[in-house]
Amino acid sequence: AETITLTYTSGTLTPASQSLTVGAGAAAKLAVTQSAAGATGGAVWTTQPKVTVQDSGSNTVTGSSAVVTLAVSGISGGTLSGATQATAASGVATFAGLSHDKTGTLTLTFTSSALTQATQSLSITAGAKAKLGVNVAAAGANAGVAFGTQPKIAVLDAGGNTVTSDTSEVTVAASGGGGTLSGTTKATAASGLATFSGLKYSAAATITLTFTSSSVTEATQSLTVETGPATELAVTQPAASATGGAAFGTQPKVTVRDAGGSTSTSSTAAVTVSANGSGTLSGTKIVSASAGVVTYTGLSYDKAETITLTYTSGTLTPASQSLTVGAGAAAKLAVTQSAAGATGGAVWTTQPKVTVQDSGSNTVTGSSAVVTLAVSGISGGTLSGATQATAASGVATFAGLSHDKTGTLTLTFTSSALTQATQSLSITAGAKAKLGVNVAAAGANAGVAFGTQPKIAVLDAGGNTVTSDTSEVTVAASGGGGTLSGTTKATAASGLATFSGLKYSAAATITLTFTSSSVTEATQSLTVETGPATELAVTQPAASATGGAAFGTQPKVTVRDAGGSTSTSSTAAVTVSANGSGTLSGTKIVSASAGVVTYTGLSYDKAETITLT
User: Fold this and answer.
1) Among candidate residues 217, 158, 212, 209, the one with its CA nearest the CA of residue 187
2) Residue 198 Rama label (left phi>0; alpha psi -120 to 50; beta)
3) What is the C-alpha separation between 234 and 292, in angstroms, rounded?
4) Given a cut of 80, is residue 24 above it in pLDDT?
């Protein structure tokens, strides 16, 4: 439809022409006279389509105001946005604001009543990154264990199409659960997809995963993290307030947890507690979990020291805690340094120390208790030294103790209401120090071996026989005027020197003195009695004799024992006779009085030397 010139010609004839205006015909069809272009997912196309109403000769029917409708096809599932109808003005329908959210090849079909439709093919590509989207959601989440399905996040354009050329870094964070998200929390997109790996969450909870990247809208996902299988033990209430031998003031609680630290509420695992110290852990040491929690009762430890309590159960990762056990209240005494080196009468070389302890045998360092010693087990001996000692820093130290007798001594230490302590102590004989009369001489008659010969013991300072001693012991007598005879030296055997054959020549009270090198002597008083009459002795010889006349001095004869002592009890009749040629006259048989025979009136008639018998 335009103004044209018609020209007519024929051979050599001069042509003729005319002007002719050709008008548009009736509307017959539609034609896309400005194609849509610059299409990216979700964004308004940069070039919007224009559709012209034409006659059959493709001339714009400028008078047309037809309504042209747009429909699309070729991309499944997308959405066409914008005004899909446009009214022609001067025969041209101009569309505006059109967009489509999906990528691919789109067919645009324009229709208007009975007019022949027009179509256009339009390629829609991904646009600039605008937002993130969850391509694969995290799933299969158990606390502390990597998610069974790791998330994949797409970098999208405004229409939600993956920007396959994008290599942005995407970061994930978790909120709402009280635990910790770990693993690779940053992933770089490849072909527009950021694939995470190793992500796990530490606690059982419902959390929100938030994915972010620079200059785009974040994406989120809700994820329920379940409790995982039991993998470890955790001390959730440590034992505390511990003193030796007493139940802990705070008993421990141990929780069975999954790898993420969440309580395995279904667990009934049996958990064993042990201690690494030098003492003994007492109480119920194996307890089964209830709803995943093990509650101990009655646990105690007997030593005051810092220990480690370790909790174990099968293949579960153990848990442990440090616990300082202090000394408790004073409860008993204990001999912590035994008396030793004890010999009769000598101060023990090792003096006893007694400690004030709590029920767990720990030293109560704050105690100043007075400890008293008593002994038993040896009859008749004497304990010397201070028998009371006051504790300093919980320890009572005795000094200067000794006992004079040998044997096995029981030492008993007491203090108020505390449980007593005892010790057995063997006391042996010490070094020789003195002599002692073990068996006294007795049955002594002058000139006759004592009926009981003395035995002398070699003694230590406490008066105990030194049975290993073989010293030589010598005896001497004094105070009697006679003579001691017999074996006056004796060698000790098993600490005893046994004398034999000792006798004293005269009746008297004498002192026997026993001596030996380097020891204190021993003495014994002994009364030597007159022995049985054994002999006569002329104690007043006859003298001043003249023939036929009584002797001027009459004889006296004494009845004596073997030792020469007068037998004062004797009344023996003693006869006197003479051996000369004459005659002895007078009373020749006289009885002793107090052991003495006194003659009177004796005479001899011949002058000669005679023997009176």
Assistant:
1) 212
2) left
3) 11
4) no
Residue 403 β-bridge partners = 383
Q: How many CB atoms lie within 10 A of CB 489?
A: 11
**Dihedral in degrees, nearest 10, Cα atoms 459, 460, 465, 466:** -110
Strand arrangement of the beta sheet that strand 253-258 belongs to = 230-237, 253-258, 293-295
Q: Cα–Cα distance between 587 and 599 in angstroms, integer?
A: 7
Asked if pLDDT for residue 261 goes beyond 90, the answer is no
Q: How far is CA 151 from CA 133, 167, 172, 400, in A?
A: 11, 17, 10, 86
Helix, strand, or coil (residue 167): coil
Pairing of strands 242-243, 319-326: parallel
Number of Cβ within a 10 Å radius of residue 55: 18
pLDDT digits (tens, 9 = 90+) for 568-591: 888 999 999 999 999 999 999 999
Provide the whole-model pTM. 0.52
Q: What are phi and psi of 379, to 5 degrees?
A: -75, 135
Q: Locate all alpha helices (DSSP H) within 297-397, ordered by sequence.
A: none
Would the pLDDT of 72 be above 80?
yes
Q: How many other C-beta atoms are found inside a 10 Å radius of the C-beta of residue 326? A: 16
For 494, other C-beta atoms within 10 Å of its C-beta total 12
Measured from the Cβ of residue 407, the count of other Cβ atoms closer than 10 Å reads: 16
Contact 84, 92 (CB under 8 A): no
Contact by Cβ (8 Å): 471, 491: yes
Query: How high is the pLDDT of residue 21?
Result: 75
Task: Please give the single-letter amino acid code of residue 259.
Answer: A
> CA-CA distances (angstroms) from residue 218 to 167, 212, 320?
16, 5, 43
291 — phi, psi (to 5°)? 55, 35
Those residues whose C-beta lies under 8 Å from the C-beta of residue 15, and which sit 6 or more positions away, are 7, 8, 9
CB atoms within 10 A of CB 384: 14
Residue whose entry in the numeric block shows the structure tokens 């785009």: 216
Q: What whole-number distance in Å separates Cα of residue 369 and Cα of residue 337?
A: 17
DSSP-assigned letters across all residues of 155-218: EE-TTS-B-TT---EEEEEEESSSS-EEEE-EEE-BTTEEE-EEEEESSSEEEEEEEE-TTSB-
DSSP letters along 582-595, please? S-EES--EEE-BTT
pLDDT band at 202, cuts 50/70/90? confident
pLDDT digit string, tens, across residues 283-320: 999 999 999 999 999 999 999 999 999 999 999 999 99
Of 237, 225, 63, give the one whose Cα is nearest residue 143. 225
Q: CA–CA separation, 583 vs 572, rounded Å? A: 24
Mean pLDDT of 147-175: 96
Give, rounded to a whole angstrom, the gap between the first and last alpha carbons of the chain: 217
